[in-house]
Amino acid sequence: LSLKFGDIGNLKDLVIRFLLTTSYYQMSVENWFSLHRLQLLYNHSIQATFNATRIYAPASYSYHCEHVSSLQRYDALLIPSSANDLSKLWEVTFTDFQIQGFNIQEGHFAYAKDCASFFSPAILMGLVMSLILLLVLAYALHMLIYLKSLDRHYECKASSAYFSQMKDNDMEDEKEPLRSSGNESYELRNQQFCKIYI
Fold first, then answer.
1. Are 99 and 44 within one domain?
2. What are the V-type proton ATPase subunit S1/VOA1 transmembrane domain coordinates in residue numbering (predicted)?
3. Which domain holds residue 152?
4. Are 65 and 97 in contact (CB under 8 A)?
């Protein structure tokens, strides 16, 4: 698959050539295509060659990736084929890259197999945050289970303390001397009491 750009600045007849291969895999029971190599040509000669890695999809699908690049910050899916050629002098980056080599119908891309991995940084961050929240919840439940009750129940009962008619025998029953020396003090035998249950 060749993309011809013509003359761009000092580059005469710039062509980007994608070498695609197709293979049948018994495990998936279908054909898969892969981008085998990318070549940069200008002035009618090959100037740089990059081997493609991990760029493949089922033959009935297309392949899509946000960045296909030779730069490490974009995961370097394009690797210079040799240390001796001019490939290391080139930096190639395709943004919003989509390709389909076979089974093209009505000039439209088929359903795309995306290059995004299942464990992208956003997904990993979400999993870490979920784990932290689960640990906090487990700790809170643990503290609630082993928390001792601090409730105090008070039961206060008022006795029927009253003064009856002034009689000598009643007065002796109602009063009890606290101490016999000096001034006499008296205390009611029947008075209010409280029970505290902890």
1. yes
2. 117-154
3. 117-158
4. yes
